[in-house]
Amino acid sequence: MGVFMLVLIVLCVFICLRLIIYQTSLIYRLKKWSHWIEDRIHVHQSLKVPELNENNQENLFYRKVYTYLNSLSTVEDSDFTNLVSNKPNGVVLSLDDDQMILDTFLGARVSWTNRVEKIDDNKSVCKKTFVLKLKKKDKRRILQAYIQHIYRCSEDIEMRCKELKLYMNTVTQSDDRRSTGRWSSVKLSHPATIETIAIDSDLKKKVKSDLESFLKSKQYYHRLGRVWKRSYLLYGPSGTGKSSFIAAMAKHLSYDIYDIDLSKVIDDSDLKMLLLQTTSKSIIVVEDLDRFISSNSNYSRVTLSGILNFMDGILNSCCGDEKLMVFTMNNKDNIDSAILRPGRIDVHIYFPLCNFNSFRLLANNCLGIKDHKLFPQVEEIFNTGATMSPAEMSELMISNRGSPGRALKSVITALQINGESRLLSTMICGKTGVRLQHNGGVVTSDDMSPVAETSSEFVMDSSCNVPVVKEIQKLYGLLRLKSSKKIGPSDQFSGSMERSR
Ligand SMILES: Nc1ncnc2c1ncn2[C@@H]1O[C@H](COP(=O)(O)OP(=O)(O)OP(=O)(O)O)[C@@H](O)[C@H]1O
Ligand SMILES: [Mg+2]
């Protein structure tokens, strides 16, 4: 009985001690005391990081340390700190004046103090310094690596918080009446992400890993003596997501976009000037390059050789590398091979018209459905070779988003019309020279096109004359009229098909 009582008492004492230690700040106090004793035993060194350098210019490392320290979990756990908010849901923690916080790196414990000294009481001018205190024995081992760690972390944080910008070249009349291109910017708020773009999922993975390996290749490019840049060609029919994909890439990388409108560029040297004014960590975009090359702009005197020089890396090296160049085209068949050679274009990505897989993704994005009893019917129609652009399809779905059944029926009807018109045009074109081409995804050595696309596009032979095209359009119009009666009135539906022709 006596032994039992003794065990019970020991157990109670043990439970009480545990409760006291964990429910109070005793453990925290014990840790603090042990740190205090340890600090007295070791020799320390203090290093100052002032806000301003000796020329009263901003010390860039101070900003990095500031970002890094304010992100540490020890700020969150500290006895007191500042809560700062710029937005209703964006409260951030920030160090208070003379606040000290701890950090550990490679097993070494260091402390940072946010020292603020008032220089002039009346003018409230302050001298701000971060003081790093570390043991002398740890200094040689960790300091270099710790500074690099601070740079890396703060750059990561800055990248994540960065507000992306879309720059566009504008035309202004200067005094000597010569127009000059200049960049003007707006906030990049395009909602597209790589996930929301309906393209082959393998292709998405390939593009993502290509982008990620590019980000990590600074040393590699420089060792090869190459400018750290990569060029992409996005090509395919209209409304297949090329422009949206550029915005998605920019968001994925947290890069700004410089969208060059070549028709607003005066000449080759103006193009060079625009490129020199771009910054690193950006995507330089030239949309519809094929259209610009084949058109005769009244304003722009940019030549093919100017474009080739622009695509090369030499100028990029003068204004900070780490850049992507993205060109879009509807068709690359008639493009000078000099433009498409590796180095000028590193990756070719084909954007096809819809197939059943992209339809499913769009249905999930626009209607929130993963499956539906009408899906087999849609798949059957796709198998006949009927197709349409993702832009047209998503418009149909969005305008009927209240009723997935109705949305799918309108997609089916649109695909049926498309199939009928394709059949018709094959019949007519067989006699007149219009060629119907099934594009199986053009595959080049570094082409990221999906291997087996069911998409198709119309290509007109030079022998194809205008009256024949009009004939097809007339017949197509009749078909459209017939089928619109079938599915009932839908402004969006007929509107989108009208736009498509
Ligand atoms: N693959 C896709 N996945 C999701 N949405 C798409 C896709 N393709 C087009 N869209 C939608 O269609 C609209 C037009 O797309 P976008 O401007 O990106 O096409 P594009 O290929 O650049 O066309 P163009 O060659 O005419 O410039 C956008 O609103 C976009 O959301
Ligand atoms: Mg576009």
Q: How would you characterize the largest beta sheet?
A: 7 strands, mixed
**Whole-number tally of structural domains:** 3
What is the rounded Rg?
32 Å
Average pLDDT across residues?
A: 77
Bound molecules: adenosine-5'-triphosphate, magnesium ion
- In whole angstroms, how far apart are the ends? 97 Å
Q: Any idea what the CATH architecture of the largest domain is?
A: 3-Layer(aba) Sandwich
Biggest sheet: strands side by side, in what order?
8-7-10-11-12-9-13
Structural class: alpha/beta
Number of beta-strand segments: 15
Number of helices, where a helix is a run of at least 4 consecutive DSSP H or I residues: 19
Share in β-strands? 15-25%
Shape, per Cα inertia axes: extended
The CATH homologous superfamily of the largest domain is named P-loop containing nucleotide triphosphate hydrolases
Class of the largest domain in CATH?
Alpha Beta
Quote the CATH topology of the largest domain: Rossmann fold
What helical percentage do the residues reach? 40-55%
Can you put this structure into words, describing what you see?
With about 500 residues, the chain is an alpha/beta fold. The chain has 3 domains: about 40-160, no CATH class; about 165-350, P-loop containing nucleotide triphosphate hydrolases (Rossmann fold); about 355-500, no CATH class. The chain has helices at about 1-25, 25-40, 60-70, 75, 135-160, 200-215, 220-225, 240-255, 270-275, 290-295, 305-310, 315-320, 335-340, 355-365, 375-385, 390-400, 405-430, 465-485, 490-500; strands at about 45-50, 80-85, 90-95, 100-105, 110-120, 125-135, 165-175, 180-185, 230-235, 255-260, 280-285, 325-330, 345-350, 435-440, 455-460. The strands form 4 sheets. Strands 8-7-10-11-12-9-13 form a 7-stranded mixed sheet, with helices on both faces. The chain has a 4-stranded antiparallel sheet with strand order 1-6-5-4, covered by helices on one side. The protein has a two-stranded antiparallel ribbon with strand order 2-3. A hairpin with a 2-residue loop joins strand 4 and strand 5 (about 110-120). Helix 3 packs across helix 5 (about 135-160), helix 9 (about 270-275) runs parallel beside helix 11 (about 305-310) and helix 16 runs antiparallel to helix 19 (about 490-500). The longest helix is centred in the last third of the chain and has 29 residues, at about 405-430. Magnesium ion (MG) binds near residues 242 and 287.
